[in-house]
Amino acid sequence: MSAKEPVAQSAFAKWTIRLMAAIGVLGCVAVIAIVVMISGNFRRHEPTAVVQAGATKQVFEIGSVEKVPGTSLMKIAIFATNGQRYGGSASYDSEKGDLRNVLLLDTITGKSRRLLPNNSRRIEAFDFLSEDREDATVCCYYLSVDRADNTLHEEVILGVLATGQQATVLPEVDGFDSVSMPDKDHVALIVRDRQRLSIHFVDLATLKVTATHPIAIN
Asked: Do 113 and 103 contact (CB within 8 A), yes or no?
């Protein structure tokens, strides 16, 4: 046997070990990929909670059901089930952008009410507001909704939980950017309209705009 044979055998052994290790890694990757695919298939086939809307028999999807802080109310989100998904500025549920209505259910009386009269319009933004930033108790809410005339404008609605009052405070704006409560009696809305930025102050007692100020950007 020549001196070259052990060297060749040693090199062969090293390459064999490397090849087996590579096959092992590829096998693990393949197993992981199969598990992920199977898991994905299971998730895709999970049944969706759907309900029919009255006499129209249109089917809508039930989204998040959450307690409204500091109240006896539960918020129930209603989504369209046509498969369309929009990425608006909404804070309700980023995975399901086609929000069509919000129900408020009183867990004491069992009574509920819709914030919109029907589910034909898309809600671009919705959230509750609190009088005190340190206190989570909710006092009111806002919605930014596509206009019924199918234009690119939005309608801004405010509502007060204690009284059940709700009103359109801005019937037509280009876009809705921010909402806050400067004090317990007012809501401040920053919106875009006709390529201009402005802030509107709304009195919660009357749900009417009491002051409007343009916001200069230059």
From this structure: yes
